[in-house]
Predict the 3D structure of the following.
Amino acid sequence: MTVTTSPFIRNALLLDAVASGATGLLAIAGASFLSPLLNLPAPLLFWAGIVLVPFVALLLITARRRSVRRMVLIDIIAINALWVAASFGLLASGLVAPNALGIAFICVQAIAVALFAELQFIGMRRATALVV
């Protein structure tokens, strides 16, 4: 099933792309600076940023389309949900020991990603279905 990419969905995808892109660039370019500031491993920050690059491309490509397969939107929402779960899971795992600023950084970005997922879900639910 295909759904119309409404302005609401488009804006939610673009906001996600801008935030994810900015976070990815910051993590890639600033991993060595952020690492001691957040007390998080520089490779973790760097590779988290690298992972965001193809995701941002997917968001931008999807936002530009007039219609999109519903499964693509579900995949984007699922990726966002997994990012949120992985973020809080990382904190709970004890594999890293971030300082207060690091914990705040992880929590704030995870909450923002959860908000994007929710906006995308709302937009998908409201979208007009097209039979293709």
